Amino acid sequence: MKWWEGDDGRHEGWDAAVFPDGRVSTGPADGGARVHPIGSDGRIGFGRGDVVDGRTAIGWRGHCACGWQGPLWERVAQVRHDFAARRIYALSECLLSGAAPDDVAVAIRAEWETHLDPPSLVAVRQAAEAVRRAQGHLDAAVRAARKDGRSWTRIGESAGVRRQYAQERWGPDPAGPWDQAADRR
């Protein structure tokens, strides 16, 4: 089990083992897993908790002190597991402490980190990534157009900008020396 802290001091998360009665682990203790019940608000119950055999865990999920809970990574008995479906075969890796396999713990942390940002910032991050990808496609298209002998005037028109801006934005010319006569066409 690993613990993580958010930058704002309000979020502390961990990859918790989940048990058949709904309790979750909050850490190893006395040769087992210390477990606590979950309140209706998603927060861990107070008190010392009980110690159980971590090998009886039915799976793992991310938890946060704020009450957030991630999806269940189900522990399955089949030797073949399906990571994409969160169905994990983990008999040999599951210890008395109930610790998640390393790859599952990494995936759970990634899920936990996504809840730290409000939806508006997630939308900004996704839109910025889409712009970066689109800009890469546009840059490649301009290079291909210049290699094909197209003028900065035509490229600028196609991109919705003036010739001068296109040339400043995407120059120096990857197709070779600038041909002023071709650019005036």
Chain-wise SSE layout:
Elements: E1 3-5, E2 12-18, E3 24-29, E4 32-36, E5 50-52, E6 59-64, E7 73-76, E8 87-89, H1 102-114, H2 119-147, H3 152-159, H4 163-170, H5 180-184
Parallel strand pairs: 7-8
Antiparallel strand pairs: 1-2, 2-6, 3-4, 4-5, 6-7
Helix pairs in contact: 3-4
Give the gist of this structure:
Helix 3 (152-159) crosses helix 4.
What does this structure look like?
The protein is α+β, with helices and mostly antiparallel strands and 185 residues long. It folds into two domains: 3-114, no CATH class; 119-184, no CATH class. It has helices at residues 102-114, 119-147, 152-159, 163-170, 180-184, and strands at residues 3-5, 12-18, 24-29, 32-36, 50-52, 59-64, 73-76, 87-89. A five-stranded mixed sheet has the order 1-2-6-7-8, with helices on one face. A three-stranded antiparallel sheet has the order 3-4-5, with no helix packed on it. It starts with a strand and ends with a helix. The mean pLDDT is 85.
Largest sheet: 5 strands, mixed
Overall geometric form: elongated
First-residue to last-residue Cα separation:
67 Å
Series of H and E elements: EEEEEEEEHHHHH
Q: Could you give the count of β-strands?
A: 8
Mean pLDDT reading: 85
**Which blocks of ≥5 consecutive residues have pLDDT under 50?**
none
Strand content: 15-25%
* Spatial ordering of strands, largest sheet: 1-2-6-7-8
Structural class: alpha+beta
